[in-house]
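Posted in: Structural Biology > Protein-Ligand Complexes

Title: Requesting predicted complex, iron/sulfur cluster in pocket

I'd be grateful if someone could produce the 3D structure tokens for the following input. Sequence and ligand are given below.
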Amino acid sequence: MSGASLERGIHALKEQIDAPTATFFSACVHCGMCAEACLFFTETRDPKYTPIHKLEPLRKVWHQEYTFWGKLGRALGLTRPVTDEELTEWETLVYDSCTMCGRCSMVCPVGNDIAYMIRKLREGMAAAGHAPPGLIGATRRAITIGSPMGVKLPALQAQIRHMEEETGLTIPVDVDGAEYLCLLSSMEIMNFPEYLGAIARIFRQANVSWTLSSEAFEATNSGIQIGVSEIARELVNRIVTAAEKLKVKAVISPECGHAYMAIRWEGPNLIGRPFGFKVVHILEVLDQLRAGGRLRTTGMETQRLTYHDPCQISRRGGVVQQPRNLLNLVAEDFVEMPDTGTMNWCCGAGGGVSSNERADELRLKVFNRKKAQLDAIGAEGLVSACSNCRIHLEDGLEEYHMDIPVLSLTETIAEHLADRESHEGKQE
Ligand code: SF4
Ligand code: SF4
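-- Reply #1 --
Done. Output follows.
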């Protein structure tokens, strides 16, 4: 990196220091409690994976640019500015060893939201040209094709036909005035199309009016993962435009963790106005149907099932009780793993880590934490509600030679629908 581009890099970091970030750095008492909350530290015991340490370039810029002692030290030549070598080294800490799971933020005694600061640092790092190639590629595909995995409309249409044949139901597309617009993640479209069949079955039984959009079906937001707000904004805008055009009452975020955070919590801030519709997670919708007596199930899973809380849905999204209500409907031996709900451990692959091949070895190493949770209760099946988690959970279980199936909660509910037999195989 040339002197001029390094200067731009430092400027990019400086630009990210807002009031919360400055307050968090001033408030940090260096207690180290965040370390024991982060699986990248607990599973490696390497101090470089301490959450607050991952923020060091940003802290350094804050100190040197915005504090009296930092400015004085710089003027006297007592402190060095951030170097290009540091940014290169920190790229792996910021992108490969942080899933932005927010567990560290939960334990900080002074209330520092470390995950928020990691996001700010990613914004600066991306602007300074320090982002992993895998994430850059995914983001480019999201902008040019509409999906980070390069999934185009014909691929979705093929999966729609496939699921229509399998379920005997018509899957609605571009229906004006439907109550719900359902989003899908590209991982669901390509790896788990059964999710689409599952919602078709459930919504048919519950008589829910819903549609997909041919113009905005992708839920994931790689702009959030890489840390580029303009891209995140554009991806949110595509959904908002489609939802408002179809005049739906609500948009359903699918079984994808960060997609929910992106559209529900970040979305209105990104576009600078409230949406003209609600955003709900599929588990919230299913639980409302359950509570209203519109979800009629039969039979129970008999194996010992447990639930992996996707970080962005449970901890950062607040959807904690709903999956438990739903599991109790269909699982006779549902057991919580230790450290569950909002304090569950991350699978190790969120926040763009799974799109970053460079991080593969590390994410599998830290899966040891999930293994310990599962071993502690003798789990025979693992249910979750995020397709990214599912892929990584399957990877991790294989790596550790654990023969435990990973199930989607929505699909599991659909398997137990009371009227499933009555319509299967018959075209509506
Ligand atoms: S957000 Fe999660 S992965 Fe990132 S530093 Fe905190 S605990 Fe670790
Ligand atoms: S837990 Fe909070 S106060 Fe303690 S070191 Fe981490 S960020 Fe600083």
